[in-house]
Amino acid sequence: MKPTVAAQPLTANRWRSNSSLFMEALIVYDSVRSGKRAKELCDRLGQQLAPDCELRLSVWSLSALQLPTLEQAVASAAEHPGLLIVAVNGDRTLPRSVKGCLHRCARAIHAADGALVTQLHGILKINEELSPAYGCLRQIAHHAGVQFFSEVVELREDELGYSLETIHERAQPNTSLLEVILHRD
Questions:
Q1: Percentages of the chain per state (helix, strand, coil), in multiples of 5
Q2: This model's pTM is above 0.85
Q3: What CA–CA distance (Å, rounded) separates 103 from 137?
Q4: Where residue 155 falls among pLDDT bands split at 50, 70, 90?
Q5: What are phi and psi of 62, to 5 degrees?
């Protein structure tokens, strides 16, 4: 993961509650798979930044952020997080309502001296900075004055669903059907 803004090292934001230390993080994701990966990233960052702290997560799907009735719940979940992780498809543009919500979350992150981390999927690493989601999230971080980090999650071949073998298996029934159609006189 690379920082895209010259910034001071990311440090854990810790709060005390009933004599235990905790760090708050907010995860926004667009699919179950990306949500799971964002949670794994959050766990790794928590272990590196605050190994002695309890990690308190608030997890929201991208579709939930688009519901006006949940806006207040998201706002209260974003009051004190030190970390905002957004795991989305890099080729997609974020809806206006989601952008507004993420702007508010980023301002809260700024107050906690935290960071916005984006985890992009569906794109190649080489196209990271060209992706619509990357540009939008980087701008949100810049406007809020928070550190911005980004990583691209390129799926392993067994997760792609379009390995050569899979493509061949899917094409075989269609090829047989085409042969029957073409050989009809």
A1: 50, 25, 30
A2: no
A3: 9
A4: low
A5: -60, -40
